[in-house]
Amino acid sequence: GGGNVEAEIAVDAAPTGVARGEGAVWVTNAYDAIVSRIDPLGHSVRQTIDVGNSPGGIAVGARAVWVANHDDGTVSRIEPQTNEVVQTIEVGNGPIAVAFGEGSVWVTNSADRTLSRIDPDSGRIIETIETDAVGRGIAVGGGSVWITDESSRRVMRVDPRTNEVADEISVGNGPTGIAFGQRAVWVANTIDGTVSRIDAASATVTATTSVPGGPGAIGVFGGQVWVSAEFAERIVRIDAANATVVDEVAIGNRPKGVVVGDEGVWVAVQESGRGHRGGRLVALSGKLGSIDPAIANDPFSTQAVSLVYDGLTTYRRVGGSEGTQLVPNLAVSIPNPRDGGKVYTFRLRPGLRYANGDAVRPEDLRRALERIFELGGPSAEAPGLAALAGAERCVMRRRCDLSRGIVTRGDSITFRLSEPTPFFLRDLSWVHPVPPGTPQRDVGTKPIPGTGPYMIESYVPGRQLTLVRNPHFRVWSKAARPDGNVEEIIFRIVPEDDRRVVSAVAGGRADLSLLLPPERIPEVKRRFARQLHVVPERATVFLFLNTKRPPFDDLRVRRALNYAVDRRRVVELHGGTAAAQLTCQVVPPTLPGYDRYCPHTLDPRPSGEWTAPDLPRAQQLIAASGTAGQKITVWTFPYFGKEARYIVSLLRGLGYRARLKEARGLAAYFAIIADPKTQAQSGIAGWYGPTLGFDALDTLSCDFFGNWANFCDPGIDRQLRSSLRLFATDPRAAAREWSRIDRQLVDQAPWVPLYTPRTPYFVSRRVGNWQFHPYHFILLDQLWVR
Question: Are 216 and 324 within one domain?
Answer without folding.
Answer: no
